[in-house]
Amino acid sequence: MIYLDNAATSWPKPPGVAAAMLHFLDQVGANPGRSGHRLSVEAGRIVYQAREALAALFNVRDPLRVVFAANATEALNLALHGYLRPGDHVITSSMEHNSVMRPLRALARPPAGRERIALTVIPCSSQGFLDPTALEAAIRPETALIVLNHASNVCGSLLPVREAGAIARRHGCLLLVDAAQTAGAYPLDVEADQIDLLAFTGHKALVGPMGTGGLVIGERVDVGRLEPLKQGGTGSRSEQQEQPDFLPDKYESGTANAVGLAGLGAGVRWVLERGVAEIRRHEVELTQRLIDGLTAIPGIAVYGGLAAARQTATVSFNLDGLLPSDVGLRLDEEYDIMCRVGLHCAPAAHETLGTFPQGTVRFSLGSINTTAEVDQALEAVSTLARAPIQNQKSRRSRSRDKIGNRP
Ligand SMILES: Cc1ncc(COP(=O)(O)O)c(C=O)c1O
After folding, report:
1. Which residues on adjacent β-strands are paired with residue 302?
2. H helix and E strand count, the chain
3. Does residue 311 carry a pLDDT above 90?
4. Backbone dihedral region of 404: left (phi > 0), alpha (psi from -120 to 50 degrees) or beta?
5. Centre of ligand 1 from the C-alpha of residue 199, in Å
6. Predicted TM-score (pTM) of this structure
């Protein structure tokens, strides 16, 4: 079986991840930061080590500025709902995932009686790239935030985050980066890239489990202005009825997903050991092989810039005469290839690429994929392109025949 759905979630995980989670459940088990006994202290240490590993990966000086959340979506919602105020202007791109677009649309069109933010969505090119001069031209005196997807989850195109960081500094606003597709797969340095808020997810290229992610809160962010999404117990300042105002507790109420964070810590340490530069080198090599192989197939449309150096390891395509859903089903049933089809929670990106509403077939490689797997996937797509009409019953429909048609 070939797993090419790493942009949805990475799999398989490196062996240390499951081992760290099992160790936590079997040997530690206690609630981090809640009790003074040694198991609770050990749980707190494991969670802090995950914070430290992430801080090292993103070049964050103070690990306490790494705030954990359930996923990138929660981190993005914290940044957007927590930071923005009525009357603020926000600039974003047309390549955003719905985890940015939906909160921004909600803030721009709030229920009756509530004040709104102003939103500018900069159109990207039909290959999914953003011109930073268009970004700068959209700045207004009331612009509070630039929000950018670091890389498209549809076609992999990399957006000019470093240029956006410089623009944000020049104009006195903040830069929020959605690094769901790049954290662990592409070098990220909050100092050099001048990123003020960095939302990441733990379960993709950071190779941790689902249910982990977070927000890096940079030193330029006014923590007094950034409101938490929730209030509650933090294990700190228990004598107070008000939410603590310090990092990370202000934003981390309730028992942490400590088992998940144990796994995330192991995943990030694996990434650090292998090195993001080496992971990137491997993925660029495989991605270019995939792009070159796909574009050579007659009757195929491949989207994006078609240059691995300008994108992540995510490649979208369509085959003439076949719906993406049919291609995905046949790749699964006839070739044991797992990929994702459709709109990938990013309708604006598909409108930009000209693939709305049918969407695309998406192959997303991970650090563990091999050249042989890419070649097998190319062979499968090439066969499907040559014989778009299914001439043999799929395994699943054969087995449905055996068990009969149940309601
Ligand atoms: C670009 C982008 N942003 C945000 C998200 C949301 O990540 P999560 O599922 O961890 O909330 C995804 C997930 O696919 C994504 O690709």
Report:
1. 317
2. 12, 13
3. yes
4. left
5. 9
6. 0.95
- Coil/strand/helix, residue 286: helix
Q: What is the reported pLDDT for 400?
A: 41
Tell me the per-residue pLDDT of 127-179, one tens digit each, with 9 for 90 and over: 999 999 999 999 999 999 999 999 999 999 999 999 999 999 999 999 999 99
Pick from 379, 376, 312, 359: nearest CA to 151: 312
State how far the alpha carbon of 369 is from the alpha carbons of 50, 287, 295, 332, in Å: 25, 10, 20, 17
Q: Are 157 and 356 in contact (CB under 8 A)?
A: no
105 Cα–ligand 1 center, Å: 17
Given phi > 0 = left and psi -120 to 50 = alpha, else beta, which region is 162? alpha
| Count of alpha carbons within 13 angstroms of residue 138, beta-carbon side | 24
Mean local confidence (pLDDT), 239-262: 97
Residue-by-residue DSSP string for 305-320: -S-GGGB-SEEEEEET
Q: How many CA atoms lie within 13 A of 341 on its CB side?
A: 17
Q: Do 289 and 371 meet the contact criterion of CB atoms below 8 Å apart?
A: yes
Ligand 1: lining residues by beta carbon, under 6 Å = 71-73, 97, 99, 149, 153, 178, 180-181, 201, 213
Ligand 1 pocket test target in 95, 157, 181, 206 with most atoms within 8 Å of CB: 181
pLDDT tens-digit profile of 103-132?
Answer: 999 999 988 878 899 999 999 999 999 999
Structure tokens at 83: 């930071």
pLDDT(93) > 80: yes
Average pLDDT over residues 50-62: 98
The whole-angstrom separation of Cα 41 and Cα 20 is 17
Average pLDDT over residues 304-322: 97
Please check the confidence at residue 218 and state whether its pLDDT lies above 50. yes
Averaged pLDDT of the chain: 94
Q: Model confidence over 13-35: pLDDT tens digits? A: 998 999 999 999 999 999 998 88
Angle, to 10 degrees, between the axis of helix 258-274 and the axis of helix 276-295? 80
Between the CA of residue 21 and those of 16, 32, 57, 131, 189, what are the distances in Å?
A: 9, 14, 21, 43, 28
